[in-house]
Write a structure and sequence with these properties.
about 180 residues; flat; 2 domains; about 0% strand; mainly alpha
Length: about 180
């Protein structure tokens, strides 16, 4: 009976507060907000550039006014998009899993890991990417060699083409063509 209760506890979904605590500990909120701010900044910059392209002689006062117009559209943040994300965590994780994640990511080891992950990911992608490219090139060359060998084998196994008497197309072509001036 005690085991059954433990299993039931393990399947309890995490609370909203737990998920937010995990996301905060993992830096999800910070990273999402950073990404959103960058994306929104790029959209404004593109709109600014589009305006300048249409009005290349715009003066500084006009451009400042344009920026003011853009600033009337507020940025949105993690808080405004968090509910669907929280639901996904709640769907796939248990309360105990989330708590274990919170405990780890708030520990010194977890903090160091989060701190080093961008560098680890970048370096892994660089070195791993080079290795993948090298291996893909070798794989492609090997496949090409095997294809050529297979094609040669298929050609060698085909029975020789039987020669059929060809129509004497040269004779037909050599016949002088008559032109009838009436048909022109």
């Amino acid at each position: 009976m005690g085991l059954a209760q433990g299993v039931a506890l393990d399947s309890t979904p995490p609370s909203r507060a737990q998920v937010l605590a995990l996301m905060s500990a993992m830096g999800v909120q910070h990273n999402v907000n950073y990404g959103l701010n960058e994306a929104q900044r790029k959209i404004k910059a593109a709109a600014h550039a589009s305006f300048i392209k249409k009005d290349p002689d715009a003066d500084a006062a006009t451009l400042k006014k344009l920026d003011g117009v853009f600033d009337t559209t507020p940025l949105f943040s993690f808080d405004e998009i968090s509910e669907p994300l929280i639901s996904v965590y709640q769907k796939h994780m248990t309360a105990s899993d989330v708590q274990a994640g919170i405990d780890f990511y708030t520990s010194d080891a977890g903090k160091r890991m989060l701190e080093q992950m961008p560098t680890i990911n970048r370096e892994s992608n660089e070195s791993g990417g080079q290795l993948v490219q090298t291996k893909l090139k070798a794989y492609s060359e090997e496949i090409e060699r095997k294809l050529e060998a297979f094609e040669a084998e298929v050609v060698s196994q085909k029975p020789p083409a039987t020669k059929t008497p060809a129509t004497n197309s040269k004779a037909v072509d050599d016949n002088p063509k008559t032109t009838d001036n009436k048909s022109k």
